[in-house]
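Pasting as-is:
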Amino acid sequence: MAKTYNFYNDAKTIDSEYISDNMGNHETFFIEELRSVDSADIQAGLNLDIKGYTETELATLASTLGLTLSVYNDGSFVEYLNSLNNIISFSFPEQTGAATIDAAAKTVAIEVEALTDPSALVASFILSDGASADISDTAQVSGTTENDFSSPVVYTITSDGGVEEDWTVTVTVAA
């Protein structure tokens, strides 16, 4: 059973695969097939050496390079890990440390200072280029829109191409 991770850009000038053999040693290898010799993405450093990478590392790499990452299991499509609709950074002025962003799980976990009222927080965030965010069809503006984070909040992130993915943001108030 092998998982295949396909990287590509919208112009389809690069199409690369990262294949995990799912064996006990988790040995992995990377194959690069270029459809256009003059692709700017070739220069972006997508050539990976033989090494095991986590899905989060692959999704982060794809986001950094502006590529889409899809996952296949034994040739069957599973999901998009990165459809250029990711949360790249997320913060509050009241936070106690950096947010934990898991691109594979589409989650953000963040802790705010003790005595902070989570029902009235304004998040600052950076999304993939061209992406937008909304909560229950209400557009979100970084550093402006106030939300109730007393319980997990689902952000719908929409890529420039219209692909939507839900991200769950969980806020914990420090003791």
